[in-house]
Write a structure and sequence with these properties.
α2 runs parallel beside α6 and α3 runs antiparallel to α8. By secondary structure, the chain is mostly helical. 80% of the residues lie in helices and 0% in strands. The longest helix is centred in the middle third of the chain and has 25 residues.
Length: 201
């Protein structure tokens, strides 16, 4: 998890620095504080909740939502901004529980922002805040060990290369196409979580 956090921070900063001015900060002010509260709750629940059941539940929800999203296509209804607090809290909690906090942010912002650039910028900045909180928690807990840093150094060029490729491709993709890509990625994340649960964590 510490290595993944470092990769997330690198990718989010690389993207967020370029497009942060396009972010919708009225959304972030609802999400960020609740994400921090969720991260604290996640650390507390980490020792109480059965890990396998948590991973299985999240994987199942992501698979079901992604199938629903693929069926709906671009016809996504706008939800209340109050759901931003829920998305922030759940994302923060899941980030510290299982290391996958992004999907709640993705789902919420998909139902809030119509502009593709504003969506990417807001999501990128939200992830910067979220993973930075986790990075501080892991560093304070003494989990940023040498092997994690070495693994990060090996993988970060591939992470940034993928970011560069995605950045090039997104200019050629419509909003409807972007929603389909997001739905497929959520489906893959859900399936990977279910596979992890079946493999024993």
């Amino acid at each position: 998890l510490p290595m993944v956090v470092l990769l997330d921070v690198s990718a989010a900063v690389a993207l967020g620095v370029r497009i942060s001015r396009e972010a919708d900060w009225s959304e972030l002010k609802w999400m960020v504080p609740m994400s921090a509260a969720g991260a604290v709750a996640g650390v507390t629940l980490l020792v109480a909740l059965p890990r396998q059941a948590t991973i299985t539940s999240m994987g199942t929800l992501l698979v079901l939502y992604s199938l629903y999203s693929l069926r709906q296509g671009e016809a996504m209804r706008i939800v209340s901004k109050l759901w931003g607090s829920v998305a922030g809290f759940v994302g923060g909690a899941l980030g510290t529980l299982v290391g996958v906090g992004g999907p709640p942010y993705v789902i919420y912002l998909t139902h809030r922002l119509r502009d593709k650039l504003a969506y990417r910028a807001t999501l990128s900045n939200m992830i910067i805040f979220s993973v930075s909180i986790r990075a501080v928690v892991f560093a304070a807990g003494g989990l940023m060990l040498a092997d994690r840093l070495i693994g990060f150094a090996v993988l970060v060029p591939f992470c940034l290369a993928g970011l560069w490729l995605g950045n090039r491709l997104q200019t050629r993709v419509s909003r409807a196409g972007l929603l389909r890509v997001v739905a497929v990625l959520l489906l893959l994340i859900g399936l990977s979580l279910l596979a992890r649960a079946l493999a024993g964590g």
